[in-house]
Amino acid sequence: MTKTALITGASRGLGLALARSLAGAGWNLVLTARGAGDLERAAAELGATAIPGDVSDPAHVRRLAAAAPSLDLLVNNASDLGVTPLPPLADYPPAAFRALLETNVTAPLTLVQATLPALRASGGAIVNVTSDAATGAYEGWGGYGATKAALEQLSNVLAAEEPGVRVWWVDPGEMNTRMLAAAVGAEEAASAADPAKVAAALYDLVSARPASGKVSLR
User: Fold this and answer.
1) Which run of H or of E encompasses 113?
2) Which of 35-44, 122-131, 172-181 has the lowest average pLDDT?
3) 142-183 pLDDT, tens per residue?
4) Three-state SS at 75
5) What is the pLDDT of residue 190?
6) What is the CATH number that goes with domain 4-209?
7) Is 171 in contact with 218 (CB distance < 8 Å)?
8) Is 203 among the residues known to form the active site?
9) Domain ranges of the chain
10) Could you count the other beta carbons within 10 Å of the beta carbon of residue 72?
11) How far apart are CA 93 and CA 61, in angstroms?
12) DSSP bridge pairs for 40
């Protein structure tokens, strides 16, 4: 039976690279991202369903869940960096932090809630993509890191509450992506890992289905 995965932030970077790995293995894919053009090109390449939109929009989350009534894997990869240049916490605008929480914490939880019935039925799995900024005291990364720390704890509790579903919160390490370039500059980002290599390790994780828990792909 063909398995189905729903991947957020799938138009580029790690999300697109993982989608390519899963498509190569015969998975059915439902992909979402805010950029409709890039997403539709990715979906056309992979024979996937593209549903562009913002994961912080509850109506969009409902559309995604309806598009995957049978689901084996949810990948919460979509994320926002927040204010750039990265400010110290003393200067972090509260409104911007609330918006960051909506995208990086509330949206993944909302999508988990919407898809849990299907994931319970299939004995499926959830991947929540986090960061070492969740635990490291990196100057300027306090706002983003706080949201990823919250996502890690949500994942930790979800794993305890949903023993029939695998839950992995995954630190992929630094990758050469637009998000990293926005934070540290294009030159430094260019020395980071290729998202395709990280996606290969993430695909191996999904295939092996270890017990729920935190995973570092560094």
Assistant:
1) helix 107-122
2) 172-181
3) 999 999 999 999 999 999 999 999 999 999 998 888 888 888
4) strand
5) 87
6) 3.40.50.720
7) yes
8) no
9) 4-209
10) 21
11) 27
12) none
Tokens representing 84 are 């750039």
Of 92, 138, 144, 203, catalytic: 144
Q: Are 52 and 40 in contact (CB under 8 A)?
A: yes
pLDDT in tens, 68-100: 999 999 999 999 999 999 999 999 999 999 999
Mean pLDDT over residues 36-47, rounded? 97
Q: Residue 38: phi, psi to the nearest 5?
A: -65, -40
Does residue 189 contact residue 203 with C-beta atoms inside 8 Å? no
Please report where in the chains the tokens 């929009």 appear, as a residue. 57
How many CB atoms lie under 10 A from the CB of residue 41?
Answer: 14
CB 98 within 8 A of CB 147: no
pTM score over 0.90: yes
